[in-house]
Structures are given as structure tokens and as C-alpha cells.
Amino acid sequence: MGIATRDSLRDWLRAPGSLSRRLARLGERFSVQVLRQRVAPFRALERAALGLPPRGLTVVREVILRVDGEPLIWARSAVHQRATIGPWRALKGLGAKPLAHLLYDDYRIHRSELQPRRLSRHGHTRRHAARQWQAATGAAMPAQMLWSRNSVFSRSGAQLRVMELFAPGLTGQRPGRRR
Fold first, then answer.
1. Which residues pair with 75 in a beta bridge?
2. How many whole angstroms separate alpha carbon 39 and alpha carbon 24?
3. Which of 163, 164, 160, 162 is nearest to 79 (CA)?
4. For a disulfide at 144, which of 34, 92, 159, 168, Cβ 3.0-4.6 Å?
5. Binding site for substrate, residues?
6. Radius of gyration (C-alpha) of the chain in whole angstroms
7. Which residues participate in the annotated binding site?
């Protein structure tokens, strides 16, 4: 497995539309492993992306997306807790279904520009994702797993932030093409 760089993951970091649907085309079986869904305090980056006040609670959903059993993406979505009784209430009952079922089948939902970002190897988000990855897969998160993309989805004035962290196993794979 090569080093996952911004260039080697460029197609994935910029791919429009549903990441889940693109991943599903890489293999025979696509699955969502829900790691955690809970109420938590805002993180600074999420608060800034959602334009929220310094205090409050968010509903966080963290998952691993797999193709044919291979973990390829760690993802975290966050929405203000109040929005889960309004425009984003369907998030509560999503379970192991992809978030894409909510985001891409409703014309009222609009997505911000994708923002690629390299995580700090020792930053809070990377350490948190690595702990969850280890617990869920039984293997350490690859050291090269540093590139993510972020976007914000808006519906009826309420915003949902999605962050997707890419495994180096996607290096060289074209979005939407079978292996």
C-alpha cells in the first residue's frame, strides 16, 4: 500500500455526489459500520463550519464505510441537537444505512464546496479516529491515513457537517470503478 497523498487521493477528495454510492461500485458489498451516535459538546471546527454559538450540543454520528469487508473511510457527521427535531430528524433513525440516503434524495438539501484537509498526525480528530478504527477493525489505523474532506449540507436553514477520512487503500482507485 502506497503513501496516501493529496495527489494520489485527488479524485476521491474532489468527487462530487455520494461517496457511499461511489464506494459501492468498487466491490460486491458495501456496508456502514456505526461506531457511535450520541450527543456531544461542539468541537471548534464543527462549530465554526456550522456557524454556531460557542456553547451547545451536537448530535454526532461516527462510522466506518467498508467495501467487501475492507475499511476504507472513517466518517463523522455533526448537527446541532435542535436540528434533529426539525430538518435533520431522520438522522436519528438512520442506523446502518448510509447518510447518502438523506443527503442526495432531497432537492431541498444543498452542499457546500468540498474542502480537502490534511489532519495533524497527532491531532485530536486523528487520535480519536485511530482509537475507533483499532476497536472496530482490530488493526491500527494506517499511519498514512491523514487526508480528509469536509462539507456542510443545508436544509431549511439547519446545517449538517460531514468529515470523511480516507484510507490509503483508495490510492490509485478511481471513484466509481470496480477493482
1. 63, 164
2. 29
3. 160
4. 168
5. 61, 99, 164
6. 15
7. 61, 99, 164
**Per-residue b or e along 105-122, where b marks 16 or more CB atoms closer than 10 Å to that residue's CB:** eeeebeeeeeeebebeee
In the chain, what is the straight-line distance between the N-terminal and C-terminal CA atoms, in Å?
15
pLDDT tens digits, 46-90: 888 888 877 778 899 999 999 999 999 999 999 998 899 989 999
Query: What SS3 state is found at 84?
Result: helix
Q: At 117, is the pLDDT very low, low, confident or very high (cuts 50, 70, 90)?
A: very high
Q: Is 6's pLDDT higher than 70?
A: no
What is the distance between the alpha carbons of residues 29 and 19, in angstroms, rounded to a whole number? 15
- This prediction has a pTM of 0.90
Give me 49's grid cell.
463550519
